[in-house]
Design brief:
With about 375 residues, this protein is of the alpha/beta class. It is built from 14 helices and 15 strands. The N terminus is likely disordered.
């Protein structure tokens, strides 16, 4: 990027980050921080592996699974606990082993002021490259802790309007027509369906759903289409089936073909596997219509907030997505949802062993509560 462009977008982002109620919240945080410094306490990090059990076999273009490994984290300061989570679906390349190894290197006890979030998160980021889900588990727990210390949820600290949260989609994996119809029935409370495609039965999946539902559909191809002409034919066909957008239709390395598809498609084309961190956002302008931001891909709430603001500043659509996660990570992502045009925050709804109570879906809409931090409480078993 040229220096002039960098300064331009940097100014846009800086202006976007400190807006509205943020200034008063920063002042309040500084007052809290000053009081905390006098106590000179330190933070402690705890973590444990956990296995999410899926209600159905989850099938997409890259494979199937019935479980998802996660690691649950806690940061404690002055008897207050912030909760975090790392979720590791296979394509991220992280596992229980890699996340636990990363977290074993974190020395949170060196910090006695949780409000020095930039310093703490910079330290976490510099421990080693990659490991974004592991980093997200610390970032989320730190945000939860700081929000609890201030006594406000993060959407308030960011100055966001909870009335502007979008409807969330409910995900339907690739399956037989009978099971697809069953999943559609289970999705009755939701206004938008997200349908996985890319295994050769694309039209059958959509036509099966259209026999039982006329709800808007978003499709996620997970890089499953290899030919741009086929992709465009499908986009034209899907437009007539009341589809809203197409997510990651082709392999992320086929940038020229995807740019051509975006230019010619009647539907927006959204990047998922092609976008991970804020460093990717500017390069995707003109190739995709928008980006799908996930905490596990980018490293947590801080990075996700900056990505959303940058994407909006350069005219790209924003989607807030998720992995298969507990209500911890889902509720953390939901704090950002007033910034999004679309939300896909149903990961906790796909599992049978959630261990937190957090944000809810009311009449199909992401609904934020006023609990401080990320808005969750632990479910005592």
């Amino acid at each position: 990027m040229k220096k002039r462009e960098f300064i331009k977008f940097g100014s846009l982002l800086a202006g976007a980050v400190i807006t509205g109620n943020s200034v008063s919240c920063i002042n309040e945080s500084m007052e809290k921080s000053n009081r905390i410094n006098k106590k000179a306490k330190s933070m402690t990090l705890k973590y444990k592996p956990y296995e999410l059990q899926l209600k159905h076999v989850f099938t997409l273009a890259s494979g199937s699974r019935t479980t998802t490994p996660v690691v649950l984290t806690e940061i404690e300061y002055d008897s207050i606990i912030g909760y975090g989570e790392a979720s590791m679906p296979p394509y991220l390349g992280e596992s229980h082993e890699t996340v636990l190894k990363f977290l074993s290197r974190v020395r949170m006890e060196q910090f006695n002021d949780p409000f020095l979030m930039e310093d703490i998160l910079s330290y976490i980021d510099n421990i080693s490259p990659g490991n974004y889900a592991a980093k997200a588990s610390v970032d989320i727990a730190l945000h939860d802790l700081v929000g609890k210390l201030i006594g406000k949820p993060w959407f308030r600290l960011w100055g966001l309007d909870p009335a502007k949260t979008p409807y969330t989609s409910f995900t339907i994996g690739i399956d037989t027509p009978e099971v697809v119809k069953q999943k559609v029935a289970e999705a009755e409370p939701y206004k938008v369906l997200k349908v996985k495609l890319g295994l050769g039965n694309d039209k059958e999946m959509i036509e099966t759903i259209r026999t039982v539902s006329d709800k808007p559909i978003c499709v996620d191809v997970n890089q499953g289409w290899k030919d741009r002409n086929y992709a465009l034919d499908m986009a034209l066909w899907l437009k007539d089936k009341d589809v809203v957008f197409i997510e990651q239709p082709m392999p992320k390395n086929l940038t020229d073909d995807i740019a051509w598809l975006t230019q010619n498609s009647p539907l927006p084309v959204i990047a998922d596997e092609a976008v991970q961190t804020i460093n990717d956002v500017l390069n995707l302008k003109g190739i995709y219509s928008g980006i799908n931001i996930k905490l596990m891909k980018c490293g947590g709430m801080d990075a996700a907030y900056k990505m959303a603001q940058m994407a909006r500043a350069i005219g790209m659509k924003v989607m807030i997505g998720c992995m298969t996660e507990t209500s911890c990570a889902i509720s953390a992502a939901a704090q950002l949802s007033p910034l999004a045009h679309w939300a896909d925050l149903d990961g906790n709804l796909l599992i049978s062993n959630d261990c937190y109570d957090g944000m809810i879906i009311s009449d199909g809409k992401v609904t934020l509560n006023e609990r401080p931090g990320i808005g969750i409480v632990e479910i005592k078993k």
